[in-house]
Amino acid sequence: MQLRKSMLASLKNIFILGIGGIGTSALAKFFKKNGKEVFGYDIIPSLRTKELEDEGIIISYEDELKKIPLKIMDEKEHSLIVYTPAIPDHLNLYQYFLQHNFKVKKRAEVLGIISENTKNISVAGTHGKTTTTAILTHLMMANDANIAAFVGGIMTNYNSNYVFKKGSGVDITITEADEFDRSFLHLFPSIALITSVDADHLDIYKNKQNFDLSFQIFAQQVNQNNLIVNYRIKEQFPGALTYGIEEGDYKPKNLQSTEDGWYFDIQTPQNSYQNFQLNYGGKHNLENAIGAISLALHFGMAINDIKEKLATFSGIKRRFEKVIDKPNILFIDDYAHHPQEIKSTLKSLKEKYPKRTILGVFQPHLYSRTQDFLDEFAQALSLLDKCYLLPIYPAREKPIPGITSVKIAQKMKPQAKVVTKTALLSAIKREKFDVIITLGAGDIGLLVEPIKRILSDEK
């Protein structure tokens, strides 16, 4: 471990392939803040790449060897190439670095090296991990130690997916432990939480048994007696502490719903604590907050610090984010892209607004996920009063014959309408509704501002 740590210390230059990704961009910020020269490649500019460029990071959008910075070439021994599995194997830059014996490491492995010899707190799970990690990060900022937090979403409080308190070195790392490509198995947490183990990424894992096994291995890598899991999956992790809304070692009491969130007390294995406030809607987000609080308490944070910080948490972009909140129209944007996430989000929305007509716009993410969960997507989306489906966002995949958004629409009750992105705005103008929610992990986020503009004009 020390050898790997000293390897990072000796580096001068970092080149990141796929630098605009949510995980890789956080690494770019970490290395930049720690005095390294950071460069990168991505296929197209984005808001995240622009943010990195504004911090002085040089990014190329051409897969050409001549675009490799001279410092990377001249100081090969002091350079590290980081890549994300989302980049294609045939990428010219990636193949060049491999064939010419550069230090090439996957993003997840680098995150594992950074977290070594720190007190690492990790949050894993098919869904809920980003929100839980973000809330935990905000709570932990009350701690005096030097912290580096890597989150899979943009935290509104910090307008960033990377948060740090910098002195000399890093004492505590907070990591969102991603199960994709078994990335989280590079982490060996001091304390960890698992939110859920619903099958996903079956293009990688092939079956539910392999998926479950990876979480079991992750759990075994956590320091003894320091694993907390959602009470719904307690049978899979015997002996772990639990949390939840209805049940768990950590659970809320005297729950009161407010216009923007929740008031509650909390029961822990040792004590009861009163007067917590969460200004973030959705019952699923309340459960995420209970998970974050359980981690913070297990770490040893003072209860008053937790209360104070929780009340000032202002959310995550694209996680139940209120884009418009007016008496006559509510517009929410959410990253949900797995059937269970969609179901939880829509149930929270319907509980909050039982008498309002809800229109949903969903963009399926990946052909393989759509194929694996056709019935589950149809069932979850049928909670909507009205629904538009966009074509499947392929990401890293090629089309699978016969797998389209129409397949989901045909199984829904009422049946959804499938439209292109260009036709969506006109379709929304013709609909009558009180609440609209956009859902998905592809590029549907690019439609949020156009939808906001037409709603502001129409409503």
Overview of this protein structure:
The chain is α/β, with parallel strands linked by helices and 459 residues long. The chain folds into 3 domains: 2-106, NAD(P)-binding Rossmann-like Domain (Rossmann fold), CATH 3.40.50.720; 118-310, UDP-N-acetylmuramoyl-L-alanine:D-glutamate ligase (3-Layer(aba) Sandwich); 321-458, Protein-Tyrosine Phosphatase, Chain A (Alpha-Beta Complex). The protein is 35% helix and 24% strand. The protein has helices at 2-9, 22-33, 47-54, 70-74, 92-99, 107-115, 129-140, 202-205, 208-220, 283-299, 303-310, 339-352, 367-372, 374-381, 405-411, 421-430, 448-458; strands spanning 13-17, 37-41, 58-60, 79-83, 103-106, 119-124, 147-155, 160-165, 172-177, 191-194, 227-230, 241-243, 251-257, 262-267, 272-278, 321-326, 329-334, 358-363, 386-389, 417-418, 435-440. Strands 8-7-9-6-10-11-12 form a 7-stranded mixed beta sheet, sandwiched between helices. Helix 3 links the parallel strand 2 (37-41) and strand 3. It starts with a helix and ends with a helix. The relative contact order is 0.09. The model has no long low-confidence stretch (mean pLDDT 93).
Salient structural properties:
459 residues, alpha/beta, Rossmann fold, UDP-N-acetylmuramoyl-L-alanine:D-glutamate ligase, Protein-Tyrosine Phosphatase, Chain A, 3 domains, 7-stranded mixed sheet, 6-stranded mixed sheet, 24% strand, globular
